């Protein structure tokens, strides 16, 4: 019997072709307690991530998008176990990350690397570039000595488009784009399988963003890297994403390929995000679906569909029934009462 749970629906939202799953996340939750009063009693929980499931294959980029506070960055940190999940399971290949002890986590941290938003704060300003890139290699006993060591660092610098003489310089001597290249070289040093990139180009000029994204795409092709790419910027996501998961209040509300998310968004929230994004082709027309109001508190999300307080299409049922994620087309899942396999079939009927 087929599994029709939301987790299964999201797991099915994978491309028909491609490599094996590098990362698999099932029912992931991260709730933060909120303390109040002199006694600091727990007054509630912020449900930053509230039961999400997805997978990423070798050579694939899955983007998480959504407004600030939707939980997308928390997902990245939890996958890295920089924050412990409240519930759910995470696999890297066949290894269940959520069960790993300290020794297992050491290996996990080798296989999963992070590229940060602000490359400058992630590079020690007092260390030369050669030392910065050698540091993770030394931590894992993989650094070579002498001339061979220099060649090891030079080769990593070359992979990110920098010259070998960069290793003698300090981070402040580089531009923002070059510093992000250094951050990527450091992440690559340990041959990771997965890179979690949290807003990696948002601090860069638009003209430099494309260069860094193209570099990441070239490296992905060369090393079959999987990327979990967190961004609020739809132009960036359109450039690099193979599949896109749209998050709202800690949940995935739609997940599909880049072409379907941009070409045929189904969830009203995705539709509104797309409508608000700048259009590259000035002749292209896009319906303007405008949503109003602020994102409700993740400590006290609205009942029913969490989006009903802002959704222009909301019907009475939306206030009480929480719509499950359902697969409406191969690899395309949506959580909306008006976008189910049945409603879409009825619309398509003559
Ligand atoms: Fe809007 Fe209702 Fe769909 Fe939620 S379930 S997105 S409120 S129409």
The profile of the biggest β sheet is:
8 strands, mixed
- Stretches where pLDDT falls below 50 for ≥5 residues? none
CATH superfamily of the largest domain, called what? P-loop containing nucleotide triphosphate hydrolases
List the total number of helices: 12
Tell me briefly what this model is.
It contains 12 helices and 12 strands. The chain is α/β, with parallel strands linked by helices and 350 residues long.
Keywords for this entry:
350 residues, alpha/beta, Rossmann fold, 2 domains, eight-stranded mixed β-sheet, four-stranded antiparallel β-sheet, 12 helices, binds iron/sulfur cluster
Description:
- The protein is α/β, with parallel strands linked by helices and 350 residues long.
- The chain has two domains: 6-93 and 193-348, P-loop containing nucleotide triphosphate hydrolases (Rossmann fold), CATH 3.40.50; 120-192, no CATH class.
- The chain is built from twelve helices and twelve strands.
- The chain has helices spanning 6-12, 72-79, 102-111, 119-122, 129-139, 146-159, 176-188, 206-223, 234-240, 258-263, 268-276, 341-348, and strands at 21-36, 41-57, 61-65, 87-92, 95-96, 112-115, 194-198, 226-230, 243-248, 251-257, 326-329, 332-334.
- The strands form two sheets. It has an eight-stranded mixed sheet, with helices on both faces. It has a four-stranded antiparallel sheet with strand order 2-1-4-5.
- Strand 9 (243-248) and strand 10 (251-257) form a beta hairpin.
- The longest helix has 18 residues, at 206-223.
- The protein is globular and about 70 Å long.
- The relative contact order is 0.14.
- The mean pLDDT is 89.
- Bound molecules: iron/sulfur cluster.
- Iron/sulfur cluster binds next to loops.
């Amino acid at each position: 019997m087929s599994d029709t749970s939301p987790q299964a629906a999201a797991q099915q939202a994978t491309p028909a072709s491609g490599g094996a799953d590098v990362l698999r996340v099932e029912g992931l939750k991260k709730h933060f307690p909120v303390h109040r009063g002199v006694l600091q009693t727990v007054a509630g929980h912020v449900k930053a991530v509230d039961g999400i499931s997805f997978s990423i294959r070798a050579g694939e980029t899955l983007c998480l998008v959504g407004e600030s506070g939707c939980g997308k960055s928390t997902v990245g940190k939890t996958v890295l176990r920089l924050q412990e999940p409240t519930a759910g399971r995470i696999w890297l290949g066949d290894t269940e990350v959520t069960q790993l002890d300290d020794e297992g986590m050491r290996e996990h941290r080798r296989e999963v690397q992070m590229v940060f938003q602000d490359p400058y704060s992630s590079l020690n300003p007092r260390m030369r570039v050669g030392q910065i890139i050698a540091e993770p290699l030394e931590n894992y006993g993989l650094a070579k000595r002498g001339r061979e060591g220099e060649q090891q660092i030079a080769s990593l610098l070359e992979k990110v488009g920098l010259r070998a003489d960069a290793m003698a310089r300090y981070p402040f001597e580089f531009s923002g784009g070059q510093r992000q290249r250094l951050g990527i070289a450091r992440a690559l040093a340990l041959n990771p399988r997965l890179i979690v990139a949290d807003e990696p180009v948002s601090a860069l000029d638009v003209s430099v963003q494309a260069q860094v994204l193209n570099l990441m795409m070239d490296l992905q092709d060369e090393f079959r890297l999987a990327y979990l790419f967190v961004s609020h910027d739809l132009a960036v996501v359109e450039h690099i994403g193979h599949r896109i998961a749209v998050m709202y209040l800690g949940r995935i509300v739609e997940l599909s390929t880049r072409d379907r998310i941009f070409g045929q968004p189904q969830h009203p929230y995705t539709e509104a995000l797309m409508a608000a994004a700048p259009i590259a082709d000035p002749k292209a027309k896009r319906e303007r679906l405008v949503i109003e109001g602020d994102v409700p508190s993740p400590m006290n999300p609205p009942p029913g569909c969490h989006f009903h307080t802002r959704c222009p299409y909301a019907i009475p049922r939306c206030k009480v029934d929480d719509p499950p994620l359902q697969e409406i087309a191969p690899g395309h899942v949506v959580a909306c009462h008006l976008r189910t396999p049945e409603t879409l079939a009825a619309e398509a009927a003559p």
